[in-house]
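hi! just following up on the protien thing from before. the input was this:
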Amino acid sequence: MKDLSMFRVGVLGAMLAAGTMTALADDAQFPPPGGESADNPSVTSVGPVTGTITALNYDADGRTVNGLFIGASNTMLTFERPVCGGVGSLGKVDDSVTYSGSEVSFSREFNSVRVTSYKDGSITYSHTTRAPTPTRYELTAGKIKALNYDPRDGAINGLFFTPMAGPEVFVDLGHVDSAVAGLLAGAAPVALSVTGAELPSPLCAKSAPIGVVVASSLTIGGALYPVGGHR
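and the predicted 3d structure came back as:
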């Protein structure tokens, strides 16, 4: 009898709990099927739209601007491509700006525009702007100006190269075997030819940096030596 009573109490408790959960579910405000939610925002193309910057938005540390609020509505402009000088350099409060992009609308009445084009006076931004790609560095003769070394083990991993014609470049060698390292470290000035790929200048470089060539081969004393690869 005692076991049966305990069973009945357990069943009654489960029924009460189920009724409570049903009541809570009835009171909860779930989004209607197919409607907007934080996980299923609507996306529309907008622009060109002209508005006024009313506030700046910051990263979690409160130091770096990562968005611009436009007008009286909760619309924030975001920029996915790197912005030279940072997003904060694109404009200031009270500036009039014109933009286009993809607007993501959330159920909490907050809109985020992923900007594809933007203009604030002479300041412009384009999502389609991409960093240039490496270009072929054809066989070029010259001399070693200085060697560069890996700080981990002192192995040669690069060199400053002065071509017979053209600007000086830094040549990234990656891994070189001991035979090639011995030739590079020979009596100066070592004459050689370099083949590889020249990297583009950094997107936001403020001054013209020295060019960087990722070498694929070196020609020293008439012999060809493949180089490159990670250490």
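The chain has two domains: 42-126, 135-226.
Residues 169 and 211 are 5 Å apart (CA to CA).
cheers
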